[in-house]
Amino acid sequence: xxxxxxxxxxxxxxxxxxxEIDPDFNGAGLRVGVVMARFNLDICExxxxxxxxxxxxxxxxxxxxxxxxxxxxxxxxLVLQTMANSGRFDALVALGAVVxxxxxxxxxxxxxxxxxxxRVGLDTGLPIANGVLTTEDEDQxxxxxxxxxxxxxxxxxxxxxxxxxxx
Length: 167
Description:
single chain, alpha/beta, Rossmann fold, 4-stranded parallel beta sheet, 4 helices, 4 strands, 46% helix, globular, 6,7-dimethyl-8-ribityllumazine synthase, EC 2.5.1.78, LS/RS_sf, transferase, LS
């Protein structure tokens, strides 16, 4: 459900009179940066398409969406950090696909990339929706890409609105 103004608390709380911040999925006026890895490009473009479609559906203007592409998942955190430090964005989205291989490399890439994305969000205070799929095979990634891309768009908008209320 979209709202035009964020509400700071529900009128009647589910928690016996304790004020609860109401989720707000109104993307109007929000500036969202998206960093997409180009490795496993077909999957990543599916994630990106679903994400941008959902951002637009939530009211984020085309002019307020900025997409940067990087070679692979390990490059995502640095670009997220640069975007976060620029002050030009209200939320960021990380998109990519790491598919398990027969080496330790999958674990290394998945763990380091995930930790880097989390660290950027915590260090900068900017919400980052992590849409980097880590799957056993390409079929799993293809099956999850549309839902994950849209979920990340919703998470980015909701978290940007929530942090605006809390700050």
